[in-house]
Amino acid sequence: MENLHTKETVTCEEMKLLEKMADEAGLSYYEMMENAGTKAAEYILDAFRYTYGKVEKVLVLCGKGNNGGDGFVVARKFHEAGIDVSVLLVEGEPVTKDAITNYNLIKDKLPILTPDDDYLTEEEDIIVDAIYGTGFHGQLRPAAEQIIRRCNEANIYIASLDIPSGLSGDMTFFDEPGYAVWASHTVTFHAKKPVHGNEMVQYLMGKIETADIGIGKVLSK
Fold first, then answer.
1. Residue 218: inside a domain
2. What is the pLDDT along the chain (221 residues), one digit of tens a residue?
3. CATH number of the domain encompassing residue 117
4. Which runs of consecutive H residues, i.e. helices, occur in the chain?
5. Residue 172 burial (CB < 10 Å; 0-12/13-18/19+)?
6. How many domains does the chain have?
7. Within a domain: 73
8. Cα-flanking dihedrals φ and ψ of residue 28, to 5°?
9. In-domain check, residue 219
């Protein structure tokens, strides 16, 4: 267990334990969220600009939990970079502590949309998927699936945070995938999860990058 933080792939339960250990070692959950969103924004912009050029308009799809919190940080970083950013609350306002804090940092600065709004103009260069993270299991709820279907069919570059929403982080080759985001790019945090090595759903994840969010450093002290 002492070398858990050096593993290249961890289960979702192991990731929760790593986050708890890092928090107890002095890296707060809030700091991990800030690091995750900041790194993801950098990776997404770098990858898109390298292949396609300038980024002018972005839509960030945010869920109610901590994956949505990461998305709020990404939206803030894009806004600070001078990009036109809108945030869609897929299932309403956030409910977790750090996600609420990060939502409060952007709600008066950026357009906050609901599923009833005309949220997809198809002028977007990038859609960021921050709906569900590694805690997701089962099937998408109808409202989220409708939004994801529309975004998938829009032929816009989609970048997912941690895993494409609709997939389970611990998914094995023998698990049947439900409907999910079709990402061009996936940025996972600290280490890959079992799903990232699952050949059956590789087509849903696109380019996979792992972002350092500080866990390894604080647990190596």
1. no
2. 458 999 999 999 999 999 999 999 999 999 999 999 999 999 999 999 999 999 999 999 999 999 999 999 999 999 999 999 999 999 999 999 999 999 999 999 999 999 999 999 989 999 999 999 888 877 899 999 999 999 999 999 999 999 999 999 998 877 777 899 999 999 999 999 999 999 999 999 999 999 999 999 999 98
3. 3.40.50.10260
4. 12-24, 29-51, 66-80, 97-106, 142-153, 215-219
5. exposed
6. 1
7. yes
8. -70, 160
9. no
